[in-house]
Amino acid sequence: MKTMKEKILAKENLAPFLDELLKTYRVVAPVRAGDYSLYRPLEHGGDICLDYLRPIKSAKEIFFPQNETLFYFNKRTNRVVASPEGEKTTVLFGITPCDLAGIIAQDRIFSSGTFKDSYYLRRRSQTILVGIACPIPGETCFCHVFGIDRFASEIADLFFIPLQNRYLVRVNTEQGGKLVEHLQEATEADLREAERLAAQPVELKEEIMPIEELSHLLSEEFESPVWDDIARKCIGCAACTFVCPTCHCFDITDEIRRDIGRRSRTWDGCMFPMFTLHASGHNPRTNATQRIRQRILHKFAYFKDNQGIISCTGCGRCVDVCPVNVDIREVLKYLSETLKDASKK
Amino acid sequence: MKEPGETFEPKIVAFLCNWCSYAGADLAGIGRYQYPPNVRVIRVPCSGRVDPLYILKALQNGADGVLVSGCHPGDCHYLEGNYFARRKFAILKNLLEFIGLEEGRVQFSWVSAAEGERFSRVIKEVTESIKKLGPARRLVKSLDIPNEILREIGGEAEA
Amino acid sequence: MIDYQTEIRKRAAELLKNKEVAMVIGYGAASLPNRTMPIFITKPEEADKLVFNRFCTNNLSVYLMRLKELGRLAIVSKPCDVRTIVCLIQEKQIERQQVHIISFACPGVKDGDGKFLSFVCANCPVTTPPIYDSLIGDGREVKQAEDFIDNVTEFFSRLPQERWEMFKAEIAKCIRCYACRNACPMCYCKECFVERALPRWIGEGAELTDTMIFHIVRAIHVAGRCGECGACLRACPMGVNLGPIAKKIQEDMLNLFRHQAGLDPEAPAALSTFELNDYNDFIK
């Protein structure tokens, strides 16, 4: 892809590079947390941890936090004041390609169309995105199904590709370029090494049916008994939802002490039985079959219809965390086989 | 806010069962037995009615201590309520101290309707011991309202 | 390695062929290494999908409540899982004859990458099933001493201030997905206290004191009903270590009330009963 320029950063200089950024910016990057990593603000460049394939939670919480205060209010005086904005620009460093694709999906929801979410936008517009390539996909990864490029990104300001002992830095925007002005230019040799790395064949898991075709079939099979089979073991938690880069449902609640209160937005999940409980007491989705069907249709059919992209990046986190091994890859394969047979009849 | 020189006055929430402990508190009043004013009373029908959630909510909302008081075992107006309560409270108290909540933040007593003077003594003891522990910080939830915003919407700092 | 798998498959096929049960709930091969997953079979020829190995970690009793309307159910249960079934019977959530328990003397299960015996199993007090309908194997103790990682005992020996910091650090990992609650067969309330809005006991999202209260109250709600199966620990996507508080409550139930959950279907649950001379020293 066409980029503005390419730079080089030695791997041993990564921590000092981040320390330099920390003088001006808030820097968020994968940080070790027990047996895994999480995207967290850095205090020192050396805190960064790229040992794990991807952080256990996606990057969405940087723009769409689990708890976000919308505003404060006083019931007696009727005054309402929005929560204050953060001041420093953030550099979000080390975003995996699947998480960058997740940000594209979150942008569709929160910052496109007629109604833009000012809370999401004020964080998003203040953040510089620095992606990192993913040379070897993990056991549960299936991003290739969605055509995600593990060596480039259309929305990252900068994109780091790990070479032998250095990173090739692709500069995609001017704001990204500012961060790496002082770095050395990449040589032809560097570029060729990156191209070779990207061209290396990797063993990919079994093929899932072409996702576009499946997306079309899914909507037609609303009444199929196949959903029962898939839903039977689901226990209705939100582990898959909360680690997912594209899931975006939320609830809004008020917490009030005497007259003073705050209104907050918090993550919610369609797998919870009470998610669709109406004020009247009616609940259109009372069993696991209906909820699982909704989850899959939303991600793989409705979102495609409404937003033009599939609401899944193949990151595999849901496969890793599900307590009962609901494996979306198996589900998609099972669906494509069953639905192909059904549509033939 | 505390003025310099003031000692800390704890806020204590007391769940008193209607038939025994609340009546005992009433009797303390009638008998003019003095006791510290730190206790805020919540009357419940029976100590067995007190859900661990009430105690935790009180702590979360800023209570420095919680007292639950009921009828002596054998004297429960509803015959058995306080027996069930006793088991529940043992488990709750041990668990809270186990996770590191200061011993003495949550206390329990049996006070009968006839024990007006004793009620005042229990309150004195409980207040003294919680005073020594200092203000509660561990389970307290704040709405985290920045001071400028609090001024703008015309509120007081959370008491 | 004990071969329970063949016997389990045979038994399941028989039960389904004779129409003694409408469904067998058991373990099947997962899509990931070192895992199994719940499967539900209704035909004798499906019995070959059942597996048994050291990774049968789920507590399948969690499905009994929602599937009991299908008719009589057979369920492959480790002894700890059987304890939770006994608790469900004690609480009249299912009837004894509704469930056909297929159980065995348990070797214990392994955690994560399969290198260690699960801590929960290392200290298991009930390695043979308290009740059963089909016994696989001869019922004699098969558990052996194996290496395990103890991340619970240390907590007990620390000072209160340290315990508070450790507890806070664990709870800070929690994302309130409720996998622990949903994996637990004893959490069957139609509306959990966290879902109530009037009054709202704890806020949504992951505020720290709210999350602490969730875990404290859930531990108390399952006090005296916990079968020590470890399903909650394993369900957690973030590795929150709930072991210490679960262990503390179990110890108190045993030391204060001489009670262990899920051993006798006729007995009442510990917090639903009392003794006249219960522990009283802590009350003024």
Describe the secondary-structure layout.
The complex is a heterotrimer of chains A (345), B (159) and C (284).
Chain A: E1 5-10, H1 14-22, E2 26-33, E3 36-41, E4 67-74, E5 79-82, E6 90-95, H2 97-111, H3 118-124, E7 127-132, E8 158-162, E9 166-171, H4 174-179, E10 184-185, H5 188-199, H6 211-220, H7 226-231, H8 239-243, E11 250-257, E12 260-267, H9 288-307, H10 317-321, H11 328-344
Parallel strand pairs in A: 2-6, 6-7, 7-8
Antiparallel strand pairs in A: 1-9, 1-10, 2-3, 4-5, 4-12, 8-9, 11-12
Helix pairs in contact in A: 6-9
Chain B: E1 12-17, H1 21-30, E2 39-44, H2 52-60, E3 65-70, H3 81-98, E4 106-110, H4 116-133, H5 147-153
Parallel strand pairs in B: 1-2, 1-3, 3-4
Chain C: H1 4-17, E1 23-29, E2 36-41, H2 64-67, E3 73-76, H3 79-90, E4 99-104, E5 110-111, E6 116-117, H4 119-122, E7 134-136, H5 153-156, H6 160-171, H7 179-183, H8 208-221, H9 231-235, H10 243-257
Parallel strand pairs in C: 1-3, 3-4, 4-7
Antiparallel strand pairs in C: 1-2, 5-6
How many beta strands in the DSSP annotation of chain A?
Answer: 12
Query: What is the helix fraction of residues of chain A, given as a range?
Result: 25-40%
Number of helices of chain B: 5
Biggest protein-protein contact in the assembly: A-C, 40 and 38 residues
**How do the SSEs of chain B run, as a string of H and E?**
EHEHEHEHH
Strand content of chain A: 15-25%
Determine the number of helices of chain A (DSSP H or I, runs of at least 4 residues). Answer: 11
Q: What is the terminal separation of chain A in angstroms?
A: 44 Å
**Which geometry of chain B do the CA atoms define?**
globular
Q: Briefly note the structural class of the backbone of chain B.
A: alpha/beta
Rg of chain B, rounded, reads 17 Å
Count of domain modules of chain B: 1
Number of strands of chain B: 4
- How many structural domains in the coordinates of chain A? 2
Shape of chain A, please?
globular
**What can be said about the biggest beta sheet of chain A?**
8 strands, mixed
Low-confidence stretches of chain B: none
